[in-house]
Write a structure and sequence with these properties.
Elements (H helix, E strand, L loop, with lengths): L6 E4 L7 H14 L3 E4 L12 H13 L3 E3 L8 E4 L6 E6 L6 H12 L6 E7 L9 H12 L6 E9 L6 E7 L9 E2 L5 E11 L4 H18 L5 E7 L5 E2 L2 E10 L4 E7 L6 H17 L6 H13 L3 E6 L4 H13 L3 E6 L9 E6 L9
Parallel strand pairs: 1-2, 5-6, 7-12, 9-15, 10-11
Antiparallel strand pairs: 2-4, 3-4, 6-8, 7-8, 10-13, 13-14, 15-17, 16-17
Length: about 375
């Protein structure tokens, strides 16, 4: 391909963060289209590539035998030329508290279309700010994304927290022939609410118990007739690096939907406040009447674009992350998205995202 065929991406528009990089690189790798990304993370206080973005890009480059120029920390422009996607073991280490969940977001769509199973060894932060927590990935993202007819195995070897990271997660993925479209239009009724409040390292279990009971009290005010079980746990010392705390609360529904609220503890932040914050996020996600929560919304876009047929998802108000993912998925693939306001009286804020996917075929299988 000549340089004329390179797709140019402006990494500074819309959400202007690392997500543009993740969506574009994964699609570039899958479609075998060379890519040039400019203004990388122009919207951030520290623009350019951070360690987690760079290690994600390097992993994708290696798993598709590609080439990358401009891959340095702080770089605001890269060119990426993909090769053929291969399975096997791939390692990415942010060497910081950069999120392993975000590393997984960039690599996972690619290895689904490899010739053989893959093992991603991801090192960094498992419970980090500005990213899904690993508990969310395992408890909500995994079962929901498996509705596209794929399987995902996630093994948390060690948890790692801000500022040092040091966590490790092993993700195993078998390739698929094609992704099935999803239909998540009917949330059903909430049947169960459960969660975990955790402390690790130097923090006392009392903090986890305080987070848990504050969250339960908050949910009880709004949802009276449901048993809410939020375990308070101390992560075993050999399974956690550093000191951290947080909570995730998941609501399960009669139609098999999962929605969550989560929050991380940090120095000087009262434990009750952490618990209440997670509970409020969950309740907000339940109020809007969508079948997916605000965290999952944007993570589904790339899979909807690749799936074979029409996917429909009812969500709350569309987030900027989701608008951004849709914009770049449409720019790089021939997938067509439409977003409409829900007509449903009960779910006034809800939107419906519809996508005619491209039916990407795994030619290696």
């Amino acid at each position: 391909m000549g340089d004329g065929d390179r797709v140019e991406i402006d990494g500074g528009i819309m959400e202007g963060g690392g997500q543009i990089l993740r969506v574009s690189t994964a699609l570039s790798c899958l479609l075998r289209v060379p890519l040039q990304v400019k203004n990388i993370r122009a919207g951030r206080s520290q623009p350019g590539l951070r360690p987690q973005h760079l290690s994600g890009l390097e992993m994708v480059r290696d798993l598709c035998d590609g080439q990358m120029e401009g891959g340095q920390i702080g770089s605001t422009e890269i060119t990426f030329t993909p090769g053929k996607i291969k399975g096997g073991t791939h390692i990415a280490d942010t060497k910081t508290a950069g999120s392993v969940c975000l590393l997984m977001q960039v690599a996972m769509p690619c290895v689904l279309f490899a010739a053989s199973p893959s093992e991603l060894r991801l090192k960094g932060g498992t419970n980090a700010e500005m990213a899904p927590q690993i508990d969310y990935t395992v408890m909500v993202f995994k079962p929901m994304v498996e509705k596209f007819n794929l399987t995902l195995d996630c093994d948390i070897k060690k948890r790692g927290y801000y500022p040092k990271g040091g966590g490790e997660v092993i993700v195993r993925i078998s390739p698929i022939k094609q992704l099935s479209p999803i239909n998540l239009m009917d949330r059903g009724t909430v049947t169960k609410i459960h969660g975990r409040a955790f402390v690790a390292g130097a923090l006392p279990i009392k903090l986890a118990k305080d987070m848990s009971s504050a969250a339960v009290r908050c949910i009880r005010k709004e949802i009276r007739d449901l048993y809410v079980n939020i375990q308070a746990v101390r992560e075993p010392d050999d399974q956690a690096f550093g000191t951290g705390s947080g909570i995730i609360i998941v609501a399960e529904t009669s139609t098999g939907c999962l929605l969550a609220g989560s929050s991380l503890g940090k120095r000087g932040k009262n434990a009750d406040k952490v618990g209440i914050e997670a509970a409020e996020i969950l309740l907000g996600n339940l109020r809007h009447g969508g079948a997916v929560d605000d965290y999952l919304q944007d993570q589904l876009i790339i899979f909807m674009a690749l799936a074979n047929g029409i996917s429909r998802v009812k969500t709350g108000p569309i987030t900027l992350h989701t608008q951004t993912a849709i914009h770049f998925a449409e720019q790089l693939t021939k997938a067509k998205f439409t977003v409409t306001k829900s007509e449903d009286e009960e779910a006034k804020d809800a939107c419906i995202i519809e996508c005619q996917g491209i039916g990407m075929l795994n030619t290696n299988l």
